[in-house]
Design goal:
Elements: E1 6-10, H1 15-28, E2 33-40, H2 44-57, E3 62-64, E4 68-73, E5 76-83, E6 86-93, H3 113-127, H4 136-140, H5 148-160, H6 168-171, H7 193-196, H8 199-205, H9 212-226, E7 233-237, H10 243-251, E8 256-260, H11 266-274, E9 279-282, E10 295-301, H12 309-318, E11 320-332, H13 339-358, H14 368-379, H15 385-395, H16 409-427, H17 436-445, E12 449-458, E13 468-475
Parallel strand pairs: 1-2, 7-8, 7-10, 8-9, 10-11
Antiparallel strand pairs: 2-6, 3-4, 4-5, 5-6, 11-13, 12-13
Helix pairs in contact: 1-2, 3-5, 5-9, 9-10, 13-16, 15-16
The chain binds S-adenosylmethionine.
């Protein structure tokens, strides 16, 4: 059991819903137990009403007692207990996890044959871990490819060959006026991703994230392997500024894409990205989205850990036709059994992406501010949360742009975003990463059949179920 120090004071009854949601998700995502002690003067019956309201919202059966209320979810049991001057929210994990398989792929869509050919050749090079015999110069030509998928993949492969490359479309990106410096209007649709991450920078630096395009190729392969036919409509959930959404249009040019994105900071970028493409952007969260419920394919990239995983899966399922396909790509961490262990895994997982991104960047090639940042990132003590907070404070300073500079400065700046994500994860405001077996178990709870699972990039551990970038194909039963 965790400590009983009051973590917060709650002045109004509705605040209890956030804390119950947090404990539910912690246990759902794999912590054996989690307890929060909250100081409050709010009358118990009001607290109870709001706990019941939350339970109704997530469709969890509950029992009310004189001194408490008990919620039962498929993988978590949570009790809210009244104490004098406070409430105690305590949850524990219930139920075990599951496992996967594969088939014959559909041919790529005609209009995307060249993109698929290049992508598969690059994936083969990437699998050759460094591909020492290959000439970087041949791959370097692909950094200028019109396809963002191919250019991003080429940059990743080059990095594996020891060349700290940046795709041309990222170099040429004109940030213009900051599109999303504002905060969310309400907390319901998004957990303020943009309050912790610099979305304006994310909108293009993210392309140098290790395995960013590889996850999309694997997602596309799973669609071709498991869909009954090539999709003509795709729902993309949590599109952010829209990089993977564009990659989807390149792999499946005949499909129309509905992109769901609640963040007021990311949405203007998404609108810009969607222009002149077969993408319709909707500014809403998946749990509130009221669009069609018969998509043959729903996908999501990097977003499953941005909301309650169960509500995320339920939302995707609701909008997918019976028998339809759901493909989710996201970062997952290794299995954990305590909060401390999880924090260490989250830190090491993000630090692995950071180290890989910076591995071949040379200080002397960079503008002075980026040189200093690189040195700080490489030399800092990274062992404790406090040290990581300090490093982030330093790394965040001076974020100018260098139009026309051909050094790989974007790689350094991407790692600031990764550090922001790391620290947000430690603070647990935004981060809800779970481990693959648990994600599979949650999907099974929601009646989704697992068709395939692959770890496309490893950050920690040697097993397919350890930390890294993962892709899952799920089917909504007919
Ligand atoms: C890490 S970003 C991923 C963006 C993009 N798909 C990518 O891979 O670059 C996670 C996204 O999930 C979005 N998100 C948060 N809550 C959501 C919700 N309830 N429904 C849909 N998306 C949500 C965030 O606003 C954010 O844009």
């Amino acid at each position: 059991m965790e400590s009983l120090r009051p973590v917060s004071v709650i002045g109004s009854a509705e605040r209890i819903e956030d804390f119950v949601a947090k404990v539910v998700q912690e246990c759902q995502n794999g912590l054996p137990s989690r307890a929060l002690h909250l100081a409050t003067q709010v009358p118990w019956h009001e607290i109870g009403e709001h706990v019941a309201r939350y339970a109704d919202r997530v469709q969890a059966p509950y029992t009310r007692r004189d001194t408490g209320i008990d919620l039962r979810l498929p993988r978590a049991a949570v009790t809210v207990e009244r104490l004098s001057g406070s409430v105690f929210v305590c949850g524990h994990r219930t139920g075990p996890p599951v496992s996967p398989e594969d088939g014959e792929p559909l041919p790529p869509p005609g209009g995307a044959a060249e993109v698929w050919r290049q992508a598969e050749a690059l994936m083969e090079l990437a699998a050759g871990a460094g591909a020492r015999d290959e000439k970087p110069a041949r791959v370097e030509g692909l950094l200028k490819h019109d396809s963002w998928l191919v250019a991003t993949l080429a940059s990743d492969v080059l990095n594996r060959m020891g060349v700290p490359a940046v795709p041309r479309f990222v170099r040429d990106h004109d940030p213009g006026a900051p599109a999303g410096s504002h905060r969310p209007a309400d907390g319901s649709a998004t957990e303020a991703w943009e309050a912790r991450i610099s979305v304006d920078e994310y909108s293009f630096f993210e392309a140098v994230h290790p395995a960013y395009a590889m996850q999309m190729v694997e997602l596309g392969r799973m669609v071709r392997t498991h869909a009954a036919r090539l999709p003509d409509r795709i729902l993309d959930v949590g599109s952010g500024p829209g990089l993977p959404t564009v990659m989807l249009t390149e792999m499946f040019p005949d499909a129309r894409i509905d992109a769901v994105e609640p963040s007021p900071a990311a949405f203007p970028h998404l609108l810009r990205t969607a222009e002149a493409r077969r993408i319709t952007a909707h500014r809403t969260g998946i749990t509130e989205y009221t669009g069609p419920e018969d998509f043959p394919l729903a996908v999501s990239v990097g977003s499953s850990h941005h909301l309650d995983t169960r509500m995320f899966l339920r939302g995707l399922k609701r909008h997918t036709v019976p028998g339809g396909l759901i493909v989710v790509a996201d970062e997952m961490i290794s299995r954990f059994t305590s909060e401390e262990e999880r924090s260490r895994i989250i830190a090491d997982h993000h630090l692995s992406y950071i180290d890989e991104t910076l591995a071949h960047v040379r200080e002397e090639d960079l503008p002075p501010a980026e040189r200093r940042r690189l040195r700080a990132l490489r030399e800092a003590d990274r062992r404790t949360p406090e040290a990581l907070h300090r490093l982030l404070d330093e790394a965040r300073r001076d974020r100018r742009f260098y139009p026309g500079d051909e050094s790989p400065w974007q790689r350094v700046r991407f790692t600031v975003l990764e550090l922001e994500a790391l620290v947000a994860g430690l603070d647990y405001d935004v981060e809800r990463k779970t481990y693959p077996d648990n994600f599979i178990a949650l999907a099974a709870d929601e009646g989704l059949e697992l068709l395939a699972h692959r770890r496309v990039h490893a950050t920690l551990g040697t097993s397919d179920r350890d930390a890294g970038t993962h892709v899952f194909a799920l089917r909504r039963p007919p």
